[in-house]
């Protein structure tokens, strides 16, 4: 309590920000960008921060551990999304993935290993991180020989928009990405164009609340040190009702599915219903037209 | 990347022509002419009960059946597979399989490949203290369990089990088997421009064959070469005891007949002696005793051996000790001493009247526990991970528990796209099994120590019968829970 009181005294602007956005749910998504860098969705400072992290990306026992621990839940979430709908993007069993902001390739590699995957296209704007991802994939001869996994040094803006469903993807994933993006609304619309009708846009991010500021910025980065410092800019966090608001009323998208997850030290990530309001959560929407 | 940096720094210390030569080697590796390394998802060293069960479990599960699997075993597995004995002959290496082990073997489709007429369930256990006579009964009535009549465990010849597993594996197919093959060494793979196998264990077989392992499983028994390769220490001690085994012919099929077989164990100051039922009139003996006593027992004539075995369940420890000082003549000594020893026949095994030729053997007993069961691209199962005193008949069952857990862990990793060899994928196996195994190792170790102290402060306590009840209590609970938890008859 004492700590929280102290924080409040020193962060009046943050508090105001929070109040404003919670009143107008999707304000942050539709407001003109506060930080812009060229035509890309990606913030230049963010890229250099992740460049600096590149070497530790695959250290599953160090600073990237909680990211690695979360990865299996991503697959569980995608499966639950696909199982929830009678409509599918494909009559075949094999899926095409587009992983946007793939980083060191934790998700991309795992998706490419699944037997029901046909291809994974994984993109990231940071050449350094992509070099780490490519080198890491060489540790797995099966990944290399099946050639399902393709890494591209690109942002979603530089990828040409598909012109037919064959070029589109069954799953477009944005894991821990949206909170690092300058213009989330435009970014989501752009990503949506890559989803095949019947396919899913899936993401995970963190809600912008006092709890998430406390747990991700203060506890995870500063106190526990389980997340590298400077990874999160709390002001860019997006709440699930804001994401819902973005897709509401758009006829090509179905009703979103949201699952909150909580990291319990010693136990790992656990699904906790309702926790999407305060911390990390998965968000999935199916493209229905 | 690491390797590239390493070779660049190395180049600073070597002459230029050498650098050029090594560059040329790099290019050759990269070109298609270089032989592609023979890579497997799982290389299992050791085709004993643990290793064969793991491979069967992986092959029988549709989720993991696509994995590329190799088995390396020093012995000739075709002999094991075609193992056959006449119905009145039994191997001396028998283990009691708990119902949960049997159910697992059934689930992976192996149980019905065992010669079932050679498997004997038992429904009751009688355990008592040789000094005080204090007795603890393991039966369902005493436990007033709803599952009364349930089998506590199934006595099975180890060869019946491994032979059945091999038949099931052959039915499933697609395992590269290298038997009669000794592991010469284990090293790490190489890093080239195209592929980085520097963290992949490579198993080298005599004759030059090399197997690259995404996951190297050590199912290679108590002296596990895989464990040494992984640099995993094992803690423990030798008991200074040998386990003497033999296949015995009894005067009948047991006091309870064919339907209610009983296992017996008596704690002597030198260690426990157990008589475990086999089909018909047969039983298997496991007698933990000093190496000197073991040597004597092996040197005796069949008649004298039988007299000493019968004495072990009937005479006082002092009488028994005396019989071990005789080079021969135990038969007469036993007959004379029995005239003065009242016994409740129903409470002890029937008299052993014959010993099958060539079945008397002995094994040194030890307790070992590896510091961990996993490393990067390495997992240990069965006796490679832990060796337990045979007094509770749990060694092989612990291995089955390991196999269940590791195969489940691998299945989870596969369905979530994880590399099944990396330590993080293997962590659930370690956390599920380590504490459970440690507890059981500790319980059996303590019991052995309580009883094998010949003199000193523990003895008066023991002769009051306190320890018999106290020490066996938790083990009884464990064994009965294992059996009752399943409640299902596999036969
Ligand atoms: C006297 C006695 C009685 C027992 N009674 C019971 C009982 O009643 N119940 C019970 O559950 N357990 C019992 N056990 C324990 C049980 O026998 C073991 O726990 C079990 O056999 C272990 O199986 P495993 O597959 O782990 O190892 P092992 O059976 O030891 O198999 C290891 C295999 O690896 C192979 N190998 C080793 N090194 C190499 C190499 N370098 N290259 C290639 N191959 C190699 C070996 O040839 C062997 O086939 C008893 C043990 C003893 C000594």
Automatic annotation (TrEMBL), chain A:
Component of a multi-subunit COQ enzyme complex, composed of at least COQ3, COQ4, COQ5, COQ6, COQ7 and COQ9. GO terms for cellular component: extrinsic component of mitochondrial inner membrane. The lineage of its organism: Eukaryota, Fungi, Dikarya, Ascomycota, Pezizomycotina. It is a peripheral membrane protein. O-methyltransferase required for two non-consecutive steps during ubiquinone biosynthesis. Catalyzes the 2 O-methylation of 3,4-dihydroxy-5-(all-trans-polyprenyl)benzoic acid into 4-hydroxy-3-methoxy-5-(all-trans-polyprenyl)benzoic acid. Also catalyzes the last step of ubiquinone biosynthesis by mediating methylation of 3-demethylubiquinone into ubiquinone. Also able to mediate the methylation of 3-demethylubiquinol into ubiquinol. Pathway: Cofactor biosynthesis; ubiquinone biosynthesis. Keywords: Magnesium, Membrane, Metal-binding, Methyltransferase, Mitochondrion, Mitochondrion inner membrane, S-adenosyl-L-methionine, Transferase, Ubiquinone biosynthesis. This is Ubiquinone biosynthesis O-methyltransferase, mitochondrial. It comes from Cercophora scortea. Mg(2+) binds at residues 176, 179-180. Its cofactor is Mg(2+). One of its GO terms (molecular function) is 3-demethylubiquinol 3-O-methyltransferase activity. It holds the Pfam family Methyltransf_23. CDD domains: AdoMet_MTases (cd02440). It catalyses: a 3-demethylubiquinone + S-adenosyl-L-methionine = a ubiquinone + S-adenosyl-L-homocysteine; a 3-demethylubiquinol + S-adenosyl-L-methionine = a ubiquinol + S-adenosyl-L-homocysteine + H(+); a 3,4-dihydroxy-5-(all-trans-polyprenyl)benzoate + S-adenosyl-L-methionine = a 4-hydroxy-3-methoxy-5-(all-trans-polyprenyl)benzoate + S-adenosyl-L-homocysteine + H(+).
UniProtKB/TrEMBL annotation, chain B:
It is a peripheral membrane protein. It catalyses: a 2-methoxy-6-(all-trans-polyprenyl)phenol + 2 reduced [2Fe-2S]-[ferredoxin] + O2 + 2 H(+) = a 2-methoxy-6-(all-trans-polyprenyl)benzene-1,4-diol + 2 oxidized [2Fe-2S]-[ferredoxin] + H2O; a 4-hydroxy-3-(all-trans-polyprenyl)benzoate + 2 reduced [2Fe-2S]-[ferredoxin] + O2 + 2 H(+) = a 3,4-dihydroxy-5-(all-trans-polyprenyl)benzoate + 2 oxidized [2Fe-2S]-[ferredoxin] + H2O. Gene3D superfamilies: FAD/NAD(P)-binding domain (3.50.50.60). It is found in: Mitochondrion inner membrane. Residues 40-339, 352-415 form the FAD-binding domain. Its main location: mitochondrion. Coiled coil: none annotated. The keyword Zinc-finger does not apply. Pathway: Cofactor biosynthesis; ubiquinone biosynthesis. One of its GO terms (molecular function) is 4-hydroxy-3-all-trans-polyprenylbenzoate oxygenase activity. Keywords: FAD, Flavoprotein, Membrane, Mitochondrion, Mitochondrion inner membrane, Monooxygenase, Oxidoreductase, Ubiquinone biosynthesis. Component of a multi-subunit COQ enzyme complex, composed of at least COQ3, COQ4, COQ5, COQ6, COQ7 and COQ9. FAD-dependent monooxygenase required for two non-consecutive steps during ubiquinone biosynthesis. Required for the C5-ring hydroxylation during ubiquinone biosynthesis by catalyzing the hydroxylation of 4-hydroxy-3-(all-trans-polyprenyl)benzoic acid to 3,4-dihydroxy-5-(all-trans-polyprenyl)benzoic acid. Also acts downstream of coq4, for the C1-hydroxylation during ubiquinone biosynthesis by catalyzing the hydroxylation of 2-methoxy-6-(all-trans-polyprenyl)phenol to 2-methoxy-6-(all-trans-polyprenyl)benzene-1,4-diol. HAMAP family: COQ6_monooxygenase. Belongs to the UbiH/COQ6 family. This is Ubiquinone biosynthesis monooxygenase COQ6, mitochondrial. It comes from Cercophora scortea.
């Amino acid at each position: 309590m004492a700590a929280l009181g102290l924080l409040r005294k020193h962060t009046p602007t943050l508090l105001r920000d929070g109040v404003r956005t919670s009143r107008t749910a999707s304000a942050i998504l539709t407001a003109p960008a506060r930080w812009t860098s060229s035509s890309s969705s990606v913030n230049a400072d963010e890229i250099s921060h992740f460049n600096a992290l590149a070497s530790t990306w695959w250290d599953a026992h160090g600073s990237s551990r909680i990211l690695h621990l979360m990865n299996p839940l991503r697959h569980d979430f995608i499966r639950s999304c696909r199982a929830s709908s009678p409509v599918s993007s494909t009559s075949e069993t094999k899926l095409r993935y587009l992983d946007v902001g793939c980083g060191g390739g934790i998700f991309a590699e795992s998706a490419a290993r699944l037997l029901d995957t046909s291809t994974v296209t994984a993109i990231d704007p940071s050449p350094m991180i992509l070099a780490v991802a490519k080198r890491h994939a060489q540790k797995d001869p099966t990944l290399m020989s099946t050639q399902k996994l393709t890494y591209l040094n690109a942002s979603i803006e530089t990828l040409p928009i598909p012109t037919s469903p064959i070029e589109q993807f069954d799953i477009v994933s944005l894991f821990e990405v949206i909170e690092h993006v300058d213009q989330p609304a435009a970014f989501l619309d752009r990503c949506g164009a890559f989803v095949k009708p019947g396919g899913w846009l899936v993401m995970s991010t963190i809600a912008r609340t006092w709890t998430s500021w406390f747990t991700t910025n203060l506890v995870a980065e500063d106190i526990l040190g389980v997340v590298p410092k400077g990874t999160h800019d709390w002001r860019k966090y997006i709440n699930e009702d804001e994401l819902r608001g973005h897709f509401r009323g758009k006829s090509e998208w179905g009703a979103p599915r949201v699952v909150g997850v909580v990291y319990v030290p010693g136990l790992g990530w656990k699904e906790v219903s309702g926790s999407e309001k305060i911390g990390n959560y998965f968000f999935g929407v199916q493209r229905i037209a | 990347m690491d390797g590239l940096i390493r070779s660049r720094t190395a180049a600073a210390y070597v002459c230029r022509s050498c650098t050029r030569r090594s560059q040329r080697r790099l290019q050759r590796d990269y070109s298609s002419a270089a032989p592609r390394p023979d890579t497997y998802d799982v290389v299992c060293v050791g085709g004993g009960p643990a290793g064969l069960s793991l491979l069967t479990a992986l092959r029988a599960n549709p989720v993991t059946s696509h994995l590329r699997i190799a088995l390396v075993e020093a012995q000739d597995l075709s002999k094991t597979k075609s193992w056959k004995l006449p119905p009145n002959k039994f191997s001396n290496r028998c283990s009691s399989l708990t119902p949960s082990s049997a159910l697992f073997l059934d689930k992976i489709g192996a149980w019905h490949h065992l010669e079932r007429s050679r498997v004997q369930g038992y429904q009751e256990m009688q355990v008592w203290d040789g000094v005080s006579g204090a007795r603890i009964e393991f039966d369902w009535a005493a436990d007033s369990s709803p599952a009364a009549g349930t089998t506590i465990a199934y006595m099975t010849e180890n060869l019946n089990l491994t032979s059945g597993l091999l038949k099931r594996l052959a039915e499933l197919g697609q395992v590269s088997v290298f038997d009669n093959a000794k592991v010469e060494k284990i090293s790490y793979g190489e890093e080239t421009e195209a592929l980085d196998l520097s963290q992949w264990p490579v198993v080298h077989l005599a004759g030059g064959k090399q197997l690259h392992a995404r996951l190297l499983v050590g199912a290679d028994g108590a002296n596990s070469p895989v464990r040494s390769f992984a640099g995993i220490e094992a803690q423990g001690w030798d008991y200074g005891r040998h386990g003497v085994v033999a296949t015995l012919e009894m005067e009948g099929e047991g006091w309870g007949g064919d339907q209610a077989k009983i296992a017996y164990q008596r704690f002597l100051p030198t260690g426990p002696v157990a008589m475990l039922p086999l089909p018909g009139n047969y039983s298997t003996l496991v007698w933990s005793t000093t190496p000197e006593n073991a040597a004597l027992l092996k040197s005796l004539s069949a008649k004298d051996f039988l007299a000493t075995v019968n004495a072990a369940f009937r005479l006082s420890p002092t009488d028994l000790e005396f019989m071990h000082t005789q080079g021969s003549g135990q038969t007469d000594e036993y007959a004379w001493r029995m005239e003065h020893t009242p016994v409740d026949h129903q409470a002890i095994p029937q008299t052993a009247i014959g010993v099958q030729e060539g079945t008397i053997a002995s094994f040194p007993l030890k307790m070992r526990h590896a510091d961990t069961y996993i490393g990067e691209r390495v997992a240990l199962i069965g006796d490679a991970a832990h060796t337990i005193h045979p007094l509770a008949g749990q060694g092989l069952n612990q291995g089955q528990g390991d196999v269940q857990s590791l195969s489940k862990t691998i299945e989870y990793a596969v369905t979530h796209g994880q590399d099944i060899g990396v330590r993080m994928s293997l962590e659930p196996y370690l956390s599920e099994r380590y504490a459970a195994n440690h507890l059981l190792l500790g319980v059996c170790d303590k019991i052995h120590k309580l009883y094998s102290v010949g003199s000193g402060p523990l003895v008066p306590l023991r002769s009051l019968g306190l320890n018999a009840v106290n020490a066996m209590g938790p083990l009884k609970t464990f064994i009965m829970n294992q059996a009752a938890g399943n409640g299902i008859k596999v036969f």
